[in-house]
Each structure stands twice: as C-alpha cells, then as structure tokens.
C-alpha cells in the first residue's frame, strides 16, 4: 500500500520538480494531490503519465494525506505548516521558515539522517538552503575524518534559485542585449545577463546577507557548531545549477589523495577530478542529475592542513526537490510515516 501525498506549491519550479522526482524514484504513492493557491485552481501539472489539476490549499483536507511536501514562501509556511502537521501528515518544508527552529530537524539524509527520529515534535522537517545542501554533503565525510576548523565559500548561484521570474529575466535580458539593449532589471537588483551580482537576499547589520548567514547557521546545526564558516554569495547568469569554490582548513592532516578517496566512497557524491581541460564538473552538466559533484580537489599550501574543492549540483534537485523526496524515502525506510487507512 502506498502513501497519500500532497505537494503544496505544485505550480512552481521546485513543486513541479518534486512531482517529477517522486515519480522518477518510484516513491510508494497511492494517491497524489497537487495543491496551490486559489489563483492556480485547475492549473494542470504532470505526475508521470497522470495530469493533475491543482486544488485550493484553503479548501483541502490535509487530514486525508500522509506526507506533505511544501514548496512555498517562508511566511506561507509559517502559517500553514503547523496547521498541516497538527492535522496528521508529516510536513517536509523547503522554505527558510523552520530551519533554525530547535524543535524542527533540518535534514540532509547523507549528513544527519538520525535527526528525522525527532520530527514528531512538530510534525515538520526542514529542507536546507539550496547552497547549504550541496556544501554539507561534501563537508561531512571530510569533517568525520579530520575535523574541519574553518571554511571559506564563494557561491556561483543560478537564476533558478530565484524562481521562474529569475529565469525569465535572464532569458529576456540575454536576448534583448542583441536587439534593443537589455531590459531593465525587475527580479534582480542589477542586470544579470552578461554580469554577476555579489548580493543574494537582504543585507544584515554586519554587512553579510541573510543568504550567506543561512549557510553557516544551517551547517552548524547539521554538522558542528564549532566550524568557522564565512561565505560570499554571488548570482551568476546560469539557468540551473549552483557551484561553490570551497577552501577548508582542518584540525588534523588530510591530503588531497586521501580526501579524493573519502569523497569517492561517500553517499550522494561523485568525484570528477582529472587534471586536464575537461576533467571537472560544470553546472550545465549537473543539470537534471541527482548527485553532488566534486572537482578540483587540491592541497592549499598557504595554511596548515588546507584543501580546496569545487562543488556543483542541480539546485532544483539536490538543493531542493530531491532532498525533500529523499527525506520522505528515509521516513518510509524507518517506518516513521503514520499511514492512514484508505477510505
């Protein structure tokens, strides 16, 4: 017997990807519902060979389902996730609303799977920020071996991280540069076509953005609060796929050859690391793929016990929809989904 599943925010990039991945991995689904806001009632989305018509979140009875995957804004999740969880199903939320709540586990299955065991406190599990998800998959096995002291990360984040509006803006600006000149920015603060923007989110008092703060706060919660981590987040003119230049300083010696072997043997990771002009991964090649890819593994001779990595993943998949589905698979494997009797 399969589960009854609802995807809330089913018309967005990540919501559609959740539906695609649920079908791709053959998650045991008995019945699936596509849920959206009132303005999207009747909009059609696909689930395998099925065409689903979106249902109104305001009218839907969440007590009739077992698992809810949420791809909505933080404010919407703050309002709805507790109500949905109280109705019975386990909520796996992709927004930033619950990530740092001490009573809500923040989970990447390759990193801290045991944290799902206390999800019953609020019946909510949080998905990390897209850039954090791929980072911690690469950091965790290295931390287990040599204890990470400090990490410096520069991100190269695709426009799909800003939703369909971000993708449309890059497409339109790129096209129009060759015709009448780039259209004025709307979604992004500056032109994104043929440009990079060293600003994602909102500035905090310390000069960092909240996007940058998410990465160190979430890494601390999932791996180790003693890790010192500093981040610069940059939006780049790439449609899908986030990349990260990662510099790591360890407490204990770890050279590039041992690190390469550790990463090759770690779950959710593929090492693509040959020292030729095509021996590395790019976001274009990672698009549509499940794993996190690690390239350019090399010693950093400027610090004691230093290492550099290049980390790439599809941000709509491992950075969002795939990780949510993998959490659902983990809950299923551990028997933690309270399944209701079918009517």
From TrEMBL:
Pathway it works in: Amino-acid biosynthesis; L-lysine biosynthesis via DAP pathway; (S)-tetrahydrodipicolinate from L-aspartate: step 2/4; Amino-acid biosynthesis; L-methionine biosynthesis via de novo pathway; L-homoserine from L-aspartate: step 2/3; Amino-acid biosynthesis; L-threonine biosynthesis; L-threonine from L-aspartate: step 2/5
Keywords, ordered alphabetically: Amino-acid biosynthesis, Diaminopimelate biosynthesis, Lysine biosynthesis, Methionine biosynthesis, NADP, Oxidoreductase, Threonine biosynthesis
Presence of keyword Cell membrane: no
InterPro entries: Asp_semialdehyde_DH, Asp_semialdehyde_DH_beta, NAD(P)-bd_dom_sf, Semialdehyde_DH_NAD-bd, Semialdhyde_DH_dimer_dom
EC numbers, comma separated: 1.2.1.11
Annotated GO MF terms: aspartate-semialdehyde dehydrogenase activity; NAD binding; NADP binding; protein dimerization activity
Residues binding NADP(+): 11-14, 39-40, 160-161, 315
Annotated signal peptide: none
Active site: 130 (acyl-thioester intermediate), 242 (proton acceptor)
Catalytically driven reaction(s): L-aspartate 4-semialdehyde + phosphate + NADP(+) = 4-phospho-L-aspartate + NADPH + H(+)
Sequence positions that bind substrate: 157, 235
Residues that, per the record, bind phosphate: 99
Leading EC class: oxidoreductase
SUPFAM superfamilies per UniProt: Glyceraldehyde-3-phosphate dehydrogenase-like, C-terminal domain (SSF55347), NAD(P)-binding Rossmann-fold domains (SSF51735)
Subunit composition and interactions: Homodimer.
Role of this protein: Catalyzes the NADPH-dependent formation of L-aspartate-semialdehyde (L-ASA) by the reductive dephosphorylation of L-aspartyl-4-phosphate.
Homology family: Belongs to the aspartate-semialdehyde dehydrogenase family.
NCBIfam families: asd_B (TIGR01296), PRK14874.1 (NF011456)
Official protein name in the record: Aspartate-semialdehyde dehydrogenase
């Amino acid at each position: 017997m399969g589960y009854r599943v609802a995807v809330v925010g089913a018309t967005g990039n990540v919501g559609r990807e959740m539906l695609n991945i649920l079908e791709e991995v053959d998650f045991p689904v008995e019945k699936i519902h596509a849920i959206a806001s009132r303005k999207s009632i009747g909009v059609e989305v696909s689930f395998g060979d099925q065409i689903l018509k979106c249902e109104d979140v305001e009218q839907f009875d969440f007590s009739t389902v077992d698992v809810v995957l949420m791809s909505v804004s933080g404010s919407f999740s703050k309002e709805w996730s507790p109500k949905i969880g109280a109705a019975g199903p386990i909520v796996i939320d992709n927004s930033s609303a619950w990530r740092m709540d001490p009573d809500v586990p923040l989970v990447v299955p390759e990193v801290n799977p045991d944290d799902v065991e206390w999800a019953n406190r609020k019946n909510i599990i949080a998905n990390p920020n897209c850039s954090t998800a791929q980072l911690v998959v690469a950091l965790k096995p290295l931390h287990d071996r040599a204890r990470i002291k400090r990490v410096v990360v520069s991100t190269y984040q695709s426009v799909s991280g800003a939703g369909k509006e971000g993708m449309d803006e890059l497409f339109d600006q790129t096209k129009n540069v060759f015709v009448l000149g780039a259209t004025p920015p709307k979604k992004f603060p500056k032109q994104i076509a043929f440009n990079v923007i060293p600003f994602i989110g909102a500035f905090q008092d310390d000069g960092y953005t909240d996007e940058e703060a998410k990465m160190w706060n979430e890494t601390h919660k999932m791996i180790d609060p003693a890790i010192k981590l500093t981040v610069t987040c940059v939006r780049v003119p790439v449609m899908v796929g986030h990349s990260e230049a990662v510099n790591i300083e360890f407490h204990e010696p770890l050279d590039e050859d041992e690190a390469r072997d550790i990463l090759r043997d770690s779950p959710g990771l593929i090492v693509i690391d040959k020292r030729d002009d095509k021996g590395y991964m790019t976001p274009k090649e990672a698009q549509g793929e499940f794993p996190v890819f690690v390239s350019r593994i090399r010693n950093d001779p400027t610090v004691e016990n230093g290492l550099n990595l290049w980390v790439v993943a599809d941000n709509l998949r491992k950075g969002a929809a795939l990780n949510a589905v993998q959490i659902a698979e983990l809950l299923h494997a551990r028997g933690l989904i309270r399944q209701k009797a079918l009517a």
